[in-house]
Write a structure and sequence with these properties.
Blueprint: E1 4-8, H1 13-25, E2 29-34, H2 47-52, E3 56-60, H3 66-76, E4 80-83, H4 90-95, H5 97-117, E5 123-127, H6 154-173, E6 177-182, E7 185-186, H7 195-207, E8 214-217, E9 223-228, H8 229-241, E10 249-252, E11 256-259, H9 260-269, E12 277-280, E13 292-293, H10 298-304, H11 312-330
Parallel strand pairs: 1-2, 1-4, 2-3, 4-5, 5-6, 6-10, 7-9, 8-12, 9-13
Antiparallel strand pairs: 9-11
Helix pairs in contact: 1-8, 3-5, 5-6, 7-9, 7-11
């Protein structure tokens, strides 16, 4: 029987790129968990294979409905689970904290409890976030795995819970669960609610003549270390296939660090429009911001040999070209 991987959140940016990576680099069958209302844009290129049941399969389910998770797990019987699904936007979590906490903490618990109740034994990756570290003092930068949690948003709090739930099931039930705290990762298919992607989208709309040459921004002073999503999913594959250790937790991230403002300048440098200005939009500012997101990934790189390969400039140009193509083919977009 072929190896089977289950990806929760396969319709998201990371999940769709992970499906692409596994299709190209393994002979596994790829099963994706999808809510009935999830947009399919990120997996449209896989539709022919999905329709033909050619190594890619979609299953309807929801982290907030445990019966649906049990049904999918019984059907798929996965060898690997990549738990990527989440309410993943920090700013939204300030206005929807209950949904964020329910989906991310209890949703993770429902998934792992379902695996436990069914007595299945897959290798499981639980995706937390670098946001768990929050506002880190300068003396603790770069951030290693033992840095204390100081979450600065309901989203970050939810990911602390996600991280701890994953480690709990590994310890309590001897399940092969590992958690990751991935730092900023981006590229094609990145949602337009994240800073670098909304910059790229707005620039593409300006180039297409759909808005005035002004980019709305939030906090430009926050430091970020960027990785390409395609490097990130390769790391996730290596996590579960290179001597997986029950209960371990890893920081993963890129090596290019700059301010959010520098990222805007990079994207503007790629634009065909040379007179674009920017203005701070108060609605894009978080009540509290995690502003020193610089990782120490020594533990993961020593364990797996992984390192980022895609240059920052290529990541940003590919992101801008992704939005140029979408604006060209899809017309109007909400102004955000």
């Amino acid at each position: 029987m072929k190896t089977r991987a289950l990806i929760t959140g396969m319709t998201g940016m990371v999940g769709s790129h992970l499906a692409d990576f596994l299709l190209e680099n393994t002979n596994w069958d790829i099963h994706g968990l999808q809510r009935w209302r999830s947009p399919l844009d990120n997996i449209m290129h896989l539709m022919d294979r999905i329709n033909k049941k050619d190594r890619v399969f979609v299953h309807y389910g929801d982290l907030n409905d445990q019966s649906s998770l049990i049904h999918v797990l019984e059907e798929v019987k996965p060898d690997y689970i990549f738990h990527l699904a989440a309410q993943s936007y920090p700013l939204t979590s300030f206005t929807a904290p209950i949904d964020t906490l329910n989906t991310n903490i209890l949703g993770t618990c429902r998934l792992l409890e379902s695996v436990h109740l069914l007595n299945q034994n897959p290798i499981i990756h639980v995706c937390a976030s670098s946001e768990v570290f929050g506002r880190v003092p300068k003396e603790k930068v770069p951030i290693n795995e033992e840095c204390s949690f100081q979450p600065a948003s309901p989203y970050a709090i939810s990911k602390v819970g996600t991280d701890l739930v994953g480690r709990y099931y590994a310890e309590a039930y001897d399940m092969t669960v590992m958690t990751t705290r991935m730092f900023t990762h981006t590229g094609p298919r990145r949602g337009d609610v994240f800073h670098e992607s909304t910059f790229a989208k707005q620039i593409a709309m300006i180039e297409a003549g759909l808005r005035e040459p002004v980019v709305k921004v939030g906090n430009l002073n926050s430091l970020r270390t960027y990785a390409d999503v395609r490097d990130a999913v390769r790391a996730y594959y290596m996590l579960v296939t290179f001597n997986p250790i029950k209960g371990e937790y890893y920081n993963i991230g890129g090596t290019y660090t700059c301010t959010v403002g520098d990222t805007l300048k990079t994207l503007l440098s790629f634009s065909t429009e040379k007179n674009i200005k920017y203005v701070v939009d108060p609605e894009r500012l978080r009540p509290i911001d995690a502003d020193l997101q610089i990782p120490d990934c020594t533990k993961f790189t020593q364990h797996t040999g992984w390192k980022p390969e895609i240059p920052y400039e290529k990541t940003m140009l590919d992101l801008l070209n992704y939005w140029r193509d979408k604006i060209k083919t899809s017309g109007s977009y909400i102004d955000r």
